[in-house]
Design brief:
Blueprint lengths: L4 H11 L4 E5 L2 E4 H17 L7 E5 L4 H12 L3 E5 L8 E5 L5 E5 L23 E5 L3 E4 H7 L7 E4 L6 H8 L3 E4 L2 H5 L1
Parallel strand pairs: 1-10, 3-4, 9-10
Antiparallel strand pairs: 1-2, 3-5, 5-6, 7-8
Helix pairs in contact: 1-2, 2-3
């Protein structure tokens, strides 16, 4: 069985779909909702030309919706770079498609609860494939992120906006709850 970040999260969605995956303020979403929303967005990316091995550039504040976007990129077979554009900035995702053409996909609203039931995409990635790229040059494969999963402690873990989103993946791969910290707590 191929062990990738998104496949581990899909397993939690299948086994414990009603468990809380993300908490942001008074809102929360289950593993089933997170997984389904990511499936929908992954299909949108693929329809826009996103292919296995593509690197998406995401500019978005740390939020529950960011988890959907990053998970969708992994499900579509790609990797990501991520930066926080700061308060009030629009969320964007762009990637280079076939022939060097650049594509921008509007993220807009990422509905979490409204998309339950969207089926998983076929596994397109391997453990050795890139999951994210840090600072534009450090390639981090799925296997490295999975190895970090043993570092999780407790049932709830804060997601503060670490650039590789490791503080997001580790709790989610372990079936724990990732808690999005308020922006003021992130800046401190």
């Amino acid at each position: 069985m191929t062990r990738t970040v998104h496949r581990l999260i899909e397993n939690h969605a299948a086994l414990r779909g009603d468990a809380i995956a993300l908490v942001e303020g008074a809102s929360s979403c289950t593993y089933r909702e997170l997984n389904s929303a990511a499936n929908v967005l992954a299909r949108r990316l693929m329809n826009a030309g996103f292919r296995r091995g593509t690197c998406a550039h995401v500019s978005m504040a740390p939020a529950a919706e960011l988890a959907v976007v990053l998970l969708a990129i992994l499900k579509a077979g790609g990797c990501y770079t991520w930066s926080d554009p700061g308060p009030g900035a629009a969320a964007t995702i762009w990637f280079e498609g076939p022939g060097g053409q650049q594509y921008e996909v509007e993220i807009g609203e990422v509905p979490l609860a409204a998309v339950c039931g969207s089926s998983n995409l076929p596994v397109m990635t391997r453990e050795t494939d890139a999951a994210c790229v840090l600072q534009g040059e450090v390639v981090v494969p799925h296997a490295t992120i999975i190895a970090m999963a043993s570092c999780a402690s407790g049932a709830r873990s804060p997601f503060s906006g670490e650039p590789g989103a490791f503080d997001l993946w580790v709790p989610l791969m372990n079936g724990a709850t990732a808690v999005v910290e308020e922006r003021s707590a992130v800046a401190a």
